[in-house]
Amino acid sequence: MPRDLGPIFKAYDVRGVVPDQLDEDAARRIGEAFAGWAGAEAIAVGRDCRLSSPALAGALMEGVTSRGVDVWDLGLVSTDLLYFVSGDLDVPGVSVTASHNPPQYNGLKFCRAGAAPVGEDTGLGEIRSLAERDGGGPTAVKPGRVAERDMLDRFVEHVMTFVDADSMVPLTVATDTANGMGGLVVPAVMDRLPVKLIALYQDLDGTFPNHPADPINPENQVDLKRAVMENQADVGLAFDGDADRVFLVDEHAEGVSGSLVTALVARAILEKEPGATILHNLICSWVVPEVIKESGGVPVRTRVGHSFMKQVMAETGAAFGGEHSGHYYFRDNYRADSGLIAAVIVLGQMSKAGRPLSELLEPFKRYFASGEINSRVDAAAATMERLAAYYRDGKQDRLDGLTVEFPDWWFNARPSNTEPLLRLNVEARRADLLAEKTDELLALIREGAS
Known about the structure:
The protein is an alpha/beta fold. It is built from 14 helices and 23 strands. Strands 1, 2, 3, 4, 5, 6 and 7 form a 7-stranded mixed β-sheet that branches. Helix 8 crosses helix 11. It is globular. The two termini are about 40 Å apart.
């Protein structure tokens, strides 16, 4: 029977409450559809530690094998491990995960062979249509086979190629993996480095009993910051539920923005590859393209979102790309994102400099930023037009939402892909100007709030 799966198909993945929105029937349908759409002989499937993940992964694999396609069952994986396997084995992949969402959620992240992205405009819409029509094809005469494959050691070896562990000095590193999949991959890598590891919530537990696996929320970094101070750690690393994003805390327990991490990693990449192209999304700080140019690189500005970042990386041959949201992409990681690779590069830079992280980042602290502020609005498009008219004297572009730039400040306002929200980012050369313009913009935006 046909089934409406629209509510769980988002811009970049599938996400929903289990079993009300996402159940085994939906997972099986999607497995059938993905197998038919991908046209591959085998598909890699991994899952996170949520309580619903084994059943959903099993149903997904049933769907795949019913179309005569083999499955590499990776078992428990971080999403960046799944992307690595897709690149390394040159097979499409699916990760059963809801990333940072609460325990009652689950979802699916997809990639084509070589870890190429799958989003709304690159196949996800077709997969949805096929899944809604009972998979969109006949059952195979001979079903595919399922073979278990453990790729953790191979992934760890790959991550280690991004850092010279032999030349590193000892560091004390606090990590908070929030009972998510970082508990699998982070210690496996840290064991290979000269690191004293202070590990919080390393046990895999899909109920996330200590705090939500969403480190972009400062409330969920409280325990990590305390651990940094109590253990005099050199750095704190917070990973989200599927461990593809990382957020840093310096030795003073101060949070480090994704823009500063992007600038630091970009500089490290350019030391090894002078003249390389480096991507940054349009809500990154002004400091990011400045540092890229100062380091001899070529900055390229992109839309927000992994499918756009990976597409532009493929088009330009960029060596690295960073997003303010904690996603970091590496050409030598099949253009896929990995918080763990970004983290080891930062540790390598700290070791090489022989200085605390706060001092290493000080040259990048040139501007004042609002962070992302979400406002619920009735009509995001009309609100952006009102902003465009009000700030018509600024330099404007529509690469992603509305960006308006003035000599001393800039802002970007863009609608959410999944909710009736307008997302605002503001940056200025002075703290008082940032406060003034942020208040001004929010007043204008919320005139049209629901």
